[in-house]
Sequence to fold (512 residues):
Amino acid sequence: MKAHKFFNIMMAVFFCLAISIPLIAVNKTPGKVSTSENRVLAQFPSFNNEQGGLNTHFIKEFETWFNDNLGLREKFVKTNTMMQYKLFGELTKQDTMVGKEGWLYYVTPEIIKDYQHLNLPTDEQLEQWGKSINQIDDYLKSKDIPFITMLNLDKKTIYPEYYPDTILKVGNVSRTDLLEEYFTNKTDLDFFTPKNALLEEKNRTTIYSPNFDNGHWNSYGAFIGYTELMKKVSSYYPDIKVLTWADINTNAYDRTTNIYDAVTFSEKDISLSLKNKSTATQVFGVLDKLNLSTSLMSASYQNEDKSLPKVLVLGDSYLYGFVTPYLAESFSEMNFIYTDNIDRIKMLVEYLDPDMVIYENVERSFDKTMSILSTSTEFSTFKDYIELPISQNATTMWIDFLNGAYVEQQDNINVDKSTNVTSISGWAMDAQAQDVASNIFLKVGDKYYSGSYGIARNSVSEHFNNPKLLNSGFAFSVPSSELIEAGKFSFVIISKDEKYQYHSSEYKVIVK
Fold:
């Protein structure tokens, strides 16, 4: 009996210690980096929001902080990862799947469906996507700017043989097959994919990272993609400089990666470098004034040869870093901007004045980009709304930034005469509906400029405590000379239901 009682006491003590030690050892250092997960842990939430009011998200943010900073968490993560891999051949990293022979694949539910051919686009989707990209093509054609569309391939498409046998395909036609067929045969787009070149090259060498990188090609594969892209560029500029393998040094080496500092993977890779000194230099600050929706994966290069054409590239991680240094060798200016900003392409073209535009996406990101583009307001015109009655209610809006600089005074707006283009960004809403508007136009003299409306503005929705106002941001790009000549400008806000229009008060232009 005494032994049984002692056992119960010891179990109770052990239980108390088990739940107390992680609480006592909770991380109290703000900004601590998890070495196993390679990310900054969540910080303890504030009781107040940015406006000084009560933080209504405190409980949710506290839960995130607690889960991130629980004592001994890092050891638990490592142990669990190691056991899962050794016992079941699986990783606890949710976006990574272990394939045959240790190949790692980046996965999401949609990527799995894509591999299985379970998310084939409908005719209506293909038509809508074609229409969205054709709008860009038509706009650029009106300015005599060549436009190239490039669709890159996921690892699963080039190396399906290492996918687990438990994941089965349905039919032989893929989503990318249908996209390629539609864009090639039913639109005027200059569209291509480097699929055939990659499939041919993989018979000679490994062109995607087996396990160091779960979702990208390696440097060798990237150069194949670059070569195919430059074939398209050369059709517009036959004399343009194109790098070949003769310009490249190759060096074989080994590289390793650690998943949560618990499971190690190694692979052989080939690094590439230019044999001769680069003629292009990365420069900084060029894109700072644009207030991009995301500045991730943005870069600018300038070449010693100023006679070369200029290029604007809207792309993703398949080009950024892998291909951008090579592209920069062929253009006097090369500006690379992440595809999430594609709904601002008119503004970007007006501001950067490129001679060529390239749009690139990898398979898994195409849907997201098309979704962003489908909501773009840049190609709308005021004539579609000009007959709407004018509401007498005051406008609710604000100009936040002018060429990246914070606007402190709303009545008088400083315009720098030394800049060719002025970018204006802020937010606006349908005051009567207490919701986002359907569109907004910038009026300069007798001209009405369309812009990008629907940009996420968390601060606005939080300030008004209205989640409907999340996507209330706008961005415009207009020639500085026109603003200076007019001496003033105003905005026209189209109501949510498109039944009336608001006219803002006028903003006076002060020339700097």
Q: What stands out?
A: Confidence is low (pLDDT under 50) at residues 32-39. The chain has three domains: 23-71, 96-374, 382-511. The radius of gyration is 27 Å.
